[in-house]
Design goal:
Number of domains: 2
Main location: cytoplasm
Strand order of the largest sheet: 2-1-6-5-7
InterPro entries: Alpha/beta_knot_MTases (IPR029028), tRNA_m1G_MeTrfase_C_sf (IPR023148), tRNA_m1G_MeTrfase_TrmD (IPR002649), tRNA_m1G_MTases_N (IPR029026), tRNA_MeTrfase_TRMD/TRM10 (IPR016009)
Subunit structure: Homodimer.
Distance between the termini: 43 Å
CATH class of the largest domain: Alpha Beta
Strand content: 5-15%
Shape: elongated
Protein name: tRNA (guanine-N(1)-)-methyltransferase
Bound molecules: 6-chloroguanine
CATH topology of the largest domain: Alpha/beta knot
Oligomer: single chain
Structural class: alpha/beta
Helix content: 25-40%
EC number: 2.1.1.228
Number of helices: 11
CATH superfamily of the largest domain: SPOUT methyltransferase, trefoil knot domain
Length: about 300
Amino acid sequence: MQIDIVSVFPEYFDVTGLSLLGKAQENGLVTIHAHNLRDWTHDVHHSVDDTPVGGGAGMVMKPEVWGQCLDDLLDMPDGSTRQQLPTDQTVGTAEVKEQKEAMKSSGGESDGIASEADSSVDSHKAGVAEPILIFPNPSAPLFTQADATELSQAKRLVFGCGRYEGYDARIPDYYRNKGTDVREYSIGDYVLNGGEVAVSVMLEAITRLLPGFMGNPESIVQESYTGDEPLLEYRQYTRPTTWRGMAVPEILTSGDHGKVDRFRRNEAIRRTSRIRPDLIARLDCSTLDKHDRRL
Ligand code: 6GU
């Protein structure tokens, strides 16, 4: 999977080089490039925002800068030519242009003045994955595990981080109208300063589902929100079986796997009913067995 992130704080994503996501990049499972939106500005102040049309507080991100940036990024092929990019996570306009030139001379793309239809045919011929464009937006539908699962199948994702009071609404509209798969997601009912944290959250939820990402793929299957039954997970314990006078539930030490499974499932259903009744309301009742129904 190839991931591009556009932000006015690309350094924010330096942390993607750490931990399991860092390993996944070393192993070639995923490449992540964070770009600085200001590299696509032309004015001396490198301004990316302006006051809202119609008045009001705050600033709105300008469509021209985003347009130039996304035209460049969405035009780029995946995998093969990507490897020519510098190892530095932050890639500016110069490198992007360089890469496009390299692509053209290697016959990887049409002459650049072809019609939209032509260039899309060409990109299919060259085996170029169509990117999905994702904008974090507190006023959008909630990002869920189902979205993470779907997006983990994609070859290319491009994230655009908005700052300040948001971005010009015509930006996603423009690319949607051009046929790009454009998504806008909120990560929860609270306010953040910008899209960077939200993109980090989505990035982690998506990439950990890539085949080969997790040491133990079983740990994904058992989790809360996964599969047809979005139940909260049962509570976990490890040794010692008694700690500061608190014993783990006795059934878990019984060695009877049937009883352990039943105990854990009961706990998952009871906890979900109490803590997240909204999830129970969404439950597909045909997945419940006769023991579940008695709870
Ligand atoms: Cl996606 N962006 C911002 N700025 N705030 C949020 C959010 C996104 N999701 C929840 N709060």
